[in-house]
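Fold this: Phosphoinositide 3-kinase regulatory subunit 4
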Amino acid sequence: MFGSLEPSSIQHPLTKGYVQTSDQEAIQTGKPLRSESSAGICMPLSSSPQAANGQAIQVRKPTIQVISSVVSPSTYQLRITTCKTELQQLIQQKREQCNAERIAKQMMENAEWETKPPPPGWHPKGLLVAHLHEHKSAVNCIRVSDEHSIFATCSNDGTVKIWDSHKMEGKTTTTRSILTYSRIGGRVTTLTFCQGSHYLAIASDNGSIQLFGIEASKLPKSPKIHPIQNRFLDQKDDGCVVDMHHFNSGAQSVLAYATVNGSLVGWDLRSCNNAWTLKHDLRLGLITSFAVDIHQCWLCIGTSSGTMACWDMRFQLPISSHSHPSRARIRRLLMHPLSQSWVIAAVQGNNEVSMWDMETGDRRFTLWASSAPPLSELQPSSHSVHGIYCSPADGNPILLTAGSDMKIRFWDLAYPERSYIVAGSSSSASVSYYRKIIEGTEVVQEIQNKHKMGPTDETPRRGPESLPVGHHDIITDIATFQTTQGFIVTASRDGIVKVWK
């Protein structure tokens, strides 16, 4: 037994047949015998010559030798079939892809809508803050940077101007653009900021798309702009760019643009290659505007024949298309900030702005600022909305519209009766807004209030009449920015840019 010691006087005769030939050789040569014990107990025999003569062997006091064993790493080899290895690799790849998509989705949800939305309860009063007349021709587009520190305008005069938002608060006597870029060629149709305010993409009617880097400088120095990338489209195959947006999709920084001949392209600015390319069926009309889903799962395009067509961004396949009953031109298209399957479309005529459910093709909500009967296909009013701004506004979305009637309207979608005209011509009459249901569509109609003549209206007024502060030509675009308070910026066909609060 382990740990038991026998007296030294006890002799241990060898068991018959225990010592084999190899053991005898070991005794003769003086080598220790092999032990059969797996416990590592060694009982060495005497190496004296008496052992060879067959005399009694005096055994020494037994000792216990404990052999410390070190467990070496397992040397087992696992044989796995090729299909199982490929399956494990595929599972790991899908896990990494799912994690990247989840991170990208969180980035998109945080960055899609503005970093500085209007505060809850914001109602602009229509006070003119700045009147900017630097462009020499129609202003086509206004874009505000993500930080709201600057905004940019582009015009048919071939220039792009960048403005400092903080200078629009009325605290300075002169308000001028901080940068003008004119080495573009052709009329600048649209532009958009990329990755905050660090890059600016510009598209011209000569088929060029240029990406510029903006280097901010400390005041009073102006920022610097330098070209980074550019591409030229084939005028016969693609045509010029009509609309352009930028979005981040995790590993890609995509500049999406649509051309007049039906090309929808996602340009990956990091790899300088196309992330995707779609081809629109021109039988549905020419592309006039498009919008991308907040999760970048699908996009919707509006056409000159009143068609709204949806594309699946994941499989790059057309999903469905729905048309306006009057086949009127779609001027502007936006995604609804709350309902993920809805789009907001500004339609030619009657100042109509409708919200469509693209899953069912139903017109769910309509803003109607016209004297014509709501949802009628007749167009006694030729006025149309050219610029739309939409904000979720803490769960109560608001909508700003402006167009050919030179009026800026504030639409409260949660409480339509609170809608009003922010700014317009001096002859603008007072209006009221009423909600009704027509053929399953909720309609908010603008109705002019009847003006009653009184004795005070016939008497002459003292003092000069106030000059109209509104636009004198078609308002082409509208946007908002936030500094110490909320501001509205509008642009018109005569090259005027106005800032309101």
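The domain at 128-450+467-500 is CATH 2.130.10.10 (Methylamine Dehydrogenase; Chain H). The radius of gyration is 41 Å.
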